[in-house]
């Protein structure tokens, strides 16, 4: 999906880090921020075969606590610090099947990736933002954090719910110091990870991926817009939230779900 891009470089001079920034939503966010003029750094466990022009890559496995300090040091040495931190890293890595299928290791892995990686990076970069008098942190959560499915997303949903609560409390703490913190909760996005997730569920259920996709859409109450999001659509929302146009937004959770979430 292509958008008519704004000609104004509203993020010119800003330094942004996007975790999990080489695929899916993270890659789309990195591309969009670069178009808006930001200097963009992305991190993931492995360098992709191709990187977008103007996007800087630093390898880091943020599920491992020891990987955080080298990443932070590298960013500070190369770029001086951050103006924008996009905690996009996330994955539903736990097996399906409900409580009895989840080991302590499964729970720990999900919490490390979906909650604690963001907590550690916030703790590392917030002092610099506060000293500079401003900054923006985005936590990419999921509508799963408000709509758990016991048999497929139990641990993932619990971790994202924790991220939502943490993000809200952090926003309240640092708002007087000039730093905005906003949560973005995507619904179903048409990414490679989502395709793999659906294929795995379909194989387990003995049905086609198309049937499983429809089953999932029905299970979460349907999507009024009738389709999954393109990651570029989610990236547009993030681009707005980190821009000066969103200067009065903090502490909120923005659902980008095509009308799916069935509450007021």
Automatic annotation (TrEMBL):
<keyword id="KW-0560">Oxidoreductase</keyword>
<dbReference type="Pfam" id="PF13561">
    <property type="entry name" value="adh_short_C2"/>
</dbReference>
<dbReference type="InterPro" id="IPR002347">
    <property type="entry name" value="SDR_fam"/>
</dbReference>
<comment type="similarity">
    <text>Belongs to the short-chain dehydrogenases/reductases (SDR) family.</text>
</comment>
<protein>
    <submittedName>
        <fullName>NAD(P)-dependent dehydrogenase (Short-subunit alcohol dehydrogenase family)</fullName>
    </submittedName>
</protein>
<dbReference type="InterPro" id="IPR036291">
    <property type="entry name" value="NAD(P)-bd_dom_sf"/>
</dbReference>
